[in-house]
Design goal:
The chain has 562 residues and is α+β, with helices and mostly antiparallel strands. It is built from 13 helices and 30 strands. It has a domain of 169 residues: Beta-galactosidase, Chain A, domain 5, CATH 2.70.98. The strands form eight sheets. An eight-stranded antiparallel sheet has the order 5-6-7-8-15-12-11-10. One of its GO terms (biological process) is oligosaccharide metabolic process.
């Protein structure tokens, strides 16, 4: 694949290093994503010089190497690989490869031995060892009491290493550049072979999705005790609750241990109240927003996908953790006689959806539907685990919530929300979020589902799939985040419900539209529903994972038909 590092950062499985090109300035930076997306990530600006003069260069990027070549000199180049998670290796020939640090006040570079420089990066609590293995390296980094005024490093004619660590550098022998390149190529080939499907119709999307999921994983560090698949290494480099479940679902078939890890990260950081964090990275755990529960829904699918997940200990762990989540919503998000509520649009994941424009708190039919679905799944898990009394209790709780949902949030025009301490009926009903009760379609009367599906087709379905705000709504907004753009996880939920609750033709049609959409908009965070353009962060794992899941579904359906 020819990788465009403006849209998809160059990185590798397990690494916090990445290299990307800024959209506006066109500058290229070696970056580090420790500390999440609130921490500065740029480490060094990259330039290519010849005889001390900056030159124009071309970038040739693949999944495993990044090459900078002079436009007017085929023999002048610098090539980068990341053969190990914390090591960048460089090979430079007939040019100068310049790194200019984007340093802070106390950041400091010092020479420890000839060709061996240690760089302390204070805001990130990170150290780098910069080593000259076989070439020529010059450093200009004047000291000024508490740090260097600036740092300018130039490398030429040989091989170099930049290694990241937290406290102490361990001296070692580094593999030759060509051996490191062979190793990383083999590692990626193994991953891609496990992701590829039979069809070549979506080859460009498949290549992007496989690479993004592989390269967006980071290794255990700090708060993170397990390998974690970040949402992106471009802008949103955290692992988010709810969204992480779609990554786990995609990994379940070929990488069950890594899939389970994506759930385990949140079960191990679960608050004593029962709430999962909103997001986690190597440095921070945030409980600012609490997403709806879908772990049990996803785990039930994983059990059908791979026997690994049927292990009683793992099932018990998910079961007990999910019970605590449900207790949180019962105790801390429910007023007596009413339904559980959101305290912010971000709680739902639909940050600025029109449903939330009238204020907070909001009783929303999607949240109640997720809770009902979870209680129903917990009931089946309890049966498997021999907890018959709990199974009955969960079933009764689901029944009671469903009755209250229909009483408080449903009328002849469909579902709606309520807002404020007095639970006023929300008049705005143009958001796709109000149609998410399709996930409990097995409980709804056929006439209700027919109405929901007709509504989806008439008011939300576009050339590329389901808009999150009706395109006829006064609240619809181009590039409006949740006021129109198409999102992958939500699309998956609708497709799954439609396919399984009697509307397979509609579900398959929307599935195929989303697959086609990725050929236009790539693996972006979200998409314009009318043009298909990729919006916001252009390198997203949840989009990639949903694409791979839906492509697998299409391939299986096609094989079964043939």
């Amino acid at each position: 694949m020819k990788l465009d590092i403006r849209e998809i950062p160059f990185s590798r499985f397990g690494s916090y290093f990445c290299i990307s090109k800024e959209q506006d300035s066109g500058d290229i930076f070696i970056r580090d994503v420790h500390g999440g997306d609130d921490a500065p990530s740029n480490l060094f600006k990259i330039d290519i010089l010849k005889d001390g003069v900056e030159k124009e260069f071309e970038v040739q990027a693949s999944e495993t190497s990044l090459k900078f070549s002079l436009k007017d000199d085929d023999e002048g180049y610098a090539e980068i690989i990341i053969p190990k998670e914390d090591e960048i290796h460089l090979e430079v020939q007939n040019v100068e490869f310049r790194l200019r640090a984007t340093k802070g006040k106390y950041d400091s570079l010092m020479e420890l031995e000839d060709g061996m420089y240690e760089y302390h990066i204070y805001p990130k609590e990170l150290k780098l060892m910069i080593l000259n293995l076989s070439g020529k390296m010059s450093v200009d980094a004047p000291w000024n009491i508490i740090g260097n005024d600036f740092i300018d490093i130039r490398m030429k004619s040989g091989q170099f290493v930049i290694e990241s660590y937290r406290t102490v550098y361990q001296q070692k022998e580094y593999a030759p550049f060509n051996k490191g390149k062979e190793k990383i190529e083999q590692l990626y080939k193994e991953w891609f072979d496990n992701m590829k499907m039979g069809s070549t119709d979506y080859q460009p999307s498949l290549e992007r999705a496989a690479y993004i999921t592989w390269s967006s994983v980071v290794h255990p560090h700090g708060v993170l005790k397990e390998y974690a698949m970040y949402m992106s290494k471009l802008w949103m480099y955290n692992i988010w609750s709810w969204d992480n479940c779609f990554n786990a679902l995609n990994l379940g078939k070929s990488y069950p241990e890594l899939a389970y890890t994506q759930l385990k990260i949140f079960m191990e950081t679960q608050d004593e109240s029962g709430a999962y964090p909103d997001f986690v990275n190597d440095k921070f755990i945030s409980y600012n927003c609490i997403k709806p529960p879908i772990f049990a829904y996803v785990y039930e699918k994983l059990m059908k996908m791979n026997d690994y997940f049927k292990d009683e200990h793992r099932l018990r762990t998910v079961y007990e953790s999910t019970k605590k989540v449900m207790e949180y919503f019962d105790q801390y998000r429910t007023v007596e006689g009413r339904l559980p509520h959101y305290k912010h649009g971000n709680d739902s994941g639909w940050d600025n959806a029109s449903l939330f424009h009238m204020g907070m708190p909001v009783e929303a039919p999607d949240l109640t539907s997720f809770l009902i679905r979870t209680y129903d799944v917990l009931s089946s898990f309890a049966e498997i685990l021999g907890e018959k009394e709990e199974s009955l209790r969960f079933k009764e709780r689901a029944d009671a919530l469903f009755d209250l949902l229909m009483e408080r949030l449903y009328d002849e025009d469909g579902f709606y929300g309520r807002v404020g301490k007095d639970g006023r009926k929300i008049s705005i009903r143009t958001s796709l979020i109000l149609r998410l009760p399709v996930i409990i379609g097995y409980r709804l009367e056929k006439s209700m589902m027919d109405q929901l599906v007709s509504d989806l087709e008439g008011n939300f379905e576009t050339k590329y799939g389901l808009a999150t705000e009706s395109v006829n709504s006064k609240y619809y907004k181009e590039n409006g985040y949740w006021l129109g753009p198409i999102w992958a996880p939500v699309t998956y939920l609708f497709i799954d419900a439609l396919q399984n609750f009697g509307y397979q033709e509609v579900g398959n049609r929307i599935r195929d539209k989303f697959l086609d959409l990725t050929l236009v908009g790539g693996m972006a965070e979200n998409f314009d529903p009318l043009t298909g353009k990729g919006l916001v962060d252009t390198s997203f794992t949840w989009t990639s994972s949903v694409f791979l899941l839906l492509l697998d579904d299409r391939t299986k359906a096609k094989d079964a038909h043939e």
